[in-house]
Amino acid sequence: MVTSRHIAIDLGASSGRVALGTVEGGKLKVEILHRFPNGGVPVRGQLYWDILGLWREVLHGLKLASSYGQIASIGVNSWAVDYGLVGKSGDLLGQVHHYRSPCLGGVMEQVRAQLTDEAIYSATGIQFLPFNTLYQLAAESPETLKRADKLLMIPDLLHFWLCGVAVTERTNASTTQFYNPQTGGWAADLLDALDIPLSLLPPIAEAGADLGALSPEVVRETQLTGTRVVLPATHDTASAVAAVPAEGQGWAYVSSGTWSLVGIETSQPIISARSLAENLTNEAGVGGTTRLLKNVMGLWIIQQCNEVWKLDYADLYAQAAGVASGPTIDPDDVRFLPPGADMPLRVQTSCVQSGQRSPQTPAEITRCVLDSLALRTAQILNTLEEVGGQRIDTMHVVGGGSQIALLNQLIADASGKTVVAGPVEATLMGNLLIQAGLPLTELRRTVRDSCELQTFSPKTATVQSCR
Hints:
Elements: E1 3-11, E2 15-24, E3 27-37, E4 40-43, E5 46-49, H1 51-65, E6 73-78, E7 83-86, E8 96-97, H2 107-115, H3 117-124, H4 133-139, H5 142-147, E9 150-153, H6 154-163, E10 168-169, H7 170-173, E11 179-180, E12 185-186, H8 188-193, E13 204-205, E14 210-213, H9 216-222, E15 228-230, H10 236-242, E16 251-256, E17 260-266, H11 273-277, E18 281-284, E19 290-296, H12 300-309, H13 313-321, H14 343-353, H15 362-388, E20 394-398, H16 405-415, E21 418-421, H17 426-435, H18 440-450, E22 454-456
Parallel strand pairs: 1-6, 6-15, 10-13, 16-20, 20-21
Antiparallel strand pairs: 1-2, 2-3, 4-5, 5-8, 7-9, 11-12, 14-15, 16-17, 17-19, 18-19, 21-22
């Protein structure tokens, strides 16, 4: 029986993990070796990532992995859109901006006014979000861009530090809003119109590509020998969707965490007047697939509220389950995008401004947010069925939100669809099994055989509008 071991480095907006995956007998066992916090660092009114601190934690996790025997490969995934600029010597130039940084205020509107929505969307098929890489680059000074040799997305930057090879993995390239999903290359005309040098962008590589051996420096630091750097789907959502335990047709997914990504899998990008009007996004998936989806604010609102409340999440959700449905919000309202201790007040204010009563307790506010997320998910699902020409019978909820029974039941009730919850570690499982070289059908079968899933049947089917 062949056994292989792989390391997945999963960087999230609030935490990171280094995990060991053992593939044996058609099953995957995942063990978390190291957890560490992550988050934005405010400096002089701006927000940055502590990328060097993350690198230190990654090296520590890899040192721990070296005691487990031979490790075949290592791969990194993270959130999308953010990047580091490196110079000709390979050194990082400046800090890595956080996608919630105030420096991006108004940039998207300026670019859209200059180029038109139709021109941008027809070339990229990506929904308009104020933190897309396109707008971050447009906010950079011309002097900074002249000094830079390469732009590397966060996982690509860490792969570069691990083995010295600079590429952009396709699933993450597709989130930038300057990748053309119809040609499979960079949207050169779009970049040229904004005076962004095409030379900044590395070659595009596929998930599963072998980038080579660890650098001698990393080998000395970690004691890992004979280990390769192999690209997973470096966008965390792409790795999670690869691990959706689905079979056949007629399913959609919700990758539920800080962000909630609601989508379907298609064989080709769908770029049309309707998909533009609905602000849908076409992101590259594994195995030549396209992820037609829409971003929803997700559990971020509750996470920010709980920074104030400091309550146990399991207790909070249990209390919310005992609260009747009441007021709802539009979770995608831009007021909820920035961090801040006033998040509970923002939820209350939104309810009052829309003519509803204000939720008062943490349980009431949490129920309000979960109801709103379920309603928004159901609305997007209806749109995806129409635009994608698919009938959806089953919703697969993966990621952290798959553990929230109340949320899963609310999604089933709001959509009238059967919800299958799990696995919670879909991103890690997708990352590890892509490194192991499994094709998509076999990968999903391995996920089904390696974890327990929970099913929620709809009690009602009442798709309403979020306030």
